[in-house]
Amino acid sequence: MSGTPSTASAPTGFRVSLPSLRLGWLRRFGVAVLTLATLVLVWEAGVRIFAVPRFILPAPSAVWTETIAVGPALFVDLRATLTTVVGGYIVAILVAFPIAVAISSSRAASSAIYPLLLVKQSIPVVALAPILTVVMGTGESARITITALIAIFPLVVGMATGLSAAPRELLELSASMKASWFKRLVDIRLPCAVPHIFGALKVAIGLALIGAVVAEFVAAERGLGYLIYSSTAYFRLPVAFGAMLVLSCMGMLLFQAVVLAERIFFPWAVGREEDPA
């Protein structure tokens, strides 16, 4: 008899929480869609009422019509930008991780590397991009390098912070049990660093998108950044606005992909902000 209440209460809690989570998600999604639709309607009405010229501020209807008229070429530009973003993002992660490990493991390495990172971060990528283009050419490698450079700083800082956040008691205990440096890194430091790492990954994916667009402004024949640059040069502002909207959608999808990866592979590291209680 004592086991009956607990058995019955577990499904009840599940039945209550799951609809609550779905309702909360639908409420947030509905508010976002309603806000966006209101802004679009106000934009369209304002342009029509005040007769704003198209080359200054196009109406959303004009943006939609002329962007669709670009046709398959838009998907070619989309693929080119996505390739640069993903390539630069992966390169930034591969470079940032060993640097973060070195910084979190040695004070000497931290003192030597951090000033160089700050010098790199203080140089605007817009100023650095033309120099890299001259040195590396106008190929994909230059654009990926520019993208990686702008995304690497938050990755190093976030990863190093997370790797340094491991409880010292656990590290000392594992050292007393003759655990190797690599085993302490894998079993203690990395699990503690997961929330910080994914926080840095979320920031870096947006910066990678910015870096890709800047690189396409400087040296590219394809890409959404190049489409924006060439469209504004010929006063085709509706197409430029359309490319910017596509870029924003790409950024949101890439960000959500990082969030989804965290929820799938490290669900224990995700906060409980969606708890219905």
Automatic annotation (TrEMBL):
Q: What is its main location?
A: membrane
Keywords on record: Cell membrane, Membrane, Transmembrane, Transmembrane helix, Transport
Q: Where is the ABC transmembrane type-1 domain?
A: 78-256
Places the protein is found: Cell membrane
PROSITE patterns in the cross-refs: ABC_TM1
* Membrane topology (UniProt): Multi-pass membrane protein
Q: What's this protein's name?
A: ABC transporter permease
Q: List the transmembrane segments.
A: 25-43, 82-104, 116-138, 144-167, 188-214, 234-255
The record's section on Pfam families has:
BPD_transp_1
The organism's superkingdom is given as Bacteria
> What is the scientific name of the source organism?
Falsiroseomonas oleicola
The text of the family note is:
Belongs to the binding-protein-dependent transport system permease family.
| PANTHER family referenced in this protein's UniProt entry, alphabetically | ABC TRANSPORTER PERMEASE PROTEIN HI_0355-RELATED (PTHR30151:SF20), ALKANE SULFONATE ABC TRANSPORTER-RELATED, MEMBRANE SUBUNIT (PTHR30151)
